[in-house]
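A sample follows:
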Amino acid sequence: MRYKFISRENNNRLILIYAGWGMDWRVFRHMRRHGYDIIIVWDYRQLTFDWSVVASYDEICLVAWSMGVFAASVTIHEILPRITKSIAVGGTPDPISDTLGIPVEIYRGTAEGLNAGNLRKFHRRMCLDAGHYSAFREVAPRRDISSLRDELYALETHTIFHAPQVCRWDLAIIGRHDRIFPPANQMRAWRDKAPTVITEGAHLPDMQSIIDDYIVDKDTMATRFAAATETYNEASVQVQQKIAQALYKILKNAAAVDALCGDILEIGCGTGTLTRLYADECAPASQIELWDIAHTDAAAYYDNAVSRCCDAEVAIRRRQPRSAYFILSSSTIQWFNSPTSFLEQCARVLLPGGYIAFSTFVRGNLPELLETCPKLDRHLPTANEWRAMLPSALEPIICQPSVVTITMDSTRDVLEHLRRTGVNALAHGTDAVTMARRILRHYPRHEDGSYTLTYYPLIIVARKIDPTIKDLGE
């Protein structure tokens, strides 16, 4: 396999893109994502790679396209511990298949009849329309026909001798108008294996939009949440407190305790809204560790607490196994690249019999805002999808949705609330200006002249299964 960095600014996060068959780096040369370096991998005649070139990165987000989905599945095992998010686009782990990929006869016919004219036809079929094809030609790969034919034959051989080793994909994106990988085959391939999103696109994706929509700009998020914690107003505090209070109450009931006892790890402590509820009550011997992506002094008030400014998705992978009895998080993990991967790590870190309790938000959160600014849709999971993210080692006890509504007097109050809470952390530059204008002009108003903002929080409590305790029914 060959590679090229198309964006390299000494970031500690990397987006690793596996291109499709016949491609090279030129197709993606204009891509950028703040806070991430970007590397393109292509040419699958040989499925070997020198992973030392990405050894310096703490976090890697994988985006694989077309035949790159299979290639990634069989080659990335060495860097799996650092991959937080994996997205498949227009491809499957079984790429040559009558039911799960490209039909066998079509694939072999492409290889046997490949020439310059047929390659142009293939490129046109990749694209949605004439305008899309014209744009592609501006960045088209520069590879000779013989190398492309060899790659097709090699890939068919690879599918026979190499079994996919990646068990978890966070998302599969399928273009409704894909004329290379039949959409119905993609749906079958991903059924019960990964959540799917259907777009109105063709086989050639808008990769820039994909990374903008699904890979979190953590540096901007940290900056804006740090600023927000200094400016919380009464409405902002009210929402955070209601959710944190409900979370702590539900946890105590689920664990059947009056106070927490045992080592505690809190993720996304912020200003300490949740911390203050349990820290004064917990047993003196309990050690509390508070993590946040922005600097926090929440631990300063407690002798048995320490704080750490870190990216929890990265830090949790370095935490010792079985080192916490409680893992708590209020309104945080929806900002992660991969909550699924994070929860798997939490199961590893928890002691047998320990608890994880977290609040998050479900699809449809802030409906008034989404009605005004659809681009702020964070693709939140449903309550059932959040529950399904729990690994088998975590036994769900509580999965409780609720509604929190706040009322404001003007659209300026709405904007101020969003600014103070950091809800708009991923809107930046001209996007933030556009969002503000739309809210001022189009935000829904009630008959009494008031404006509301509705949150849909979800609280989940799960217990790590203790393998030494057998089910009485066995």
Remarks:
- Residues 218-464 form a domain with the Rossmann fold fold (CATH 3.40.50.150).
- The chain has two domains: 2-214, 218-464.
- The mean pLDDT is 91.
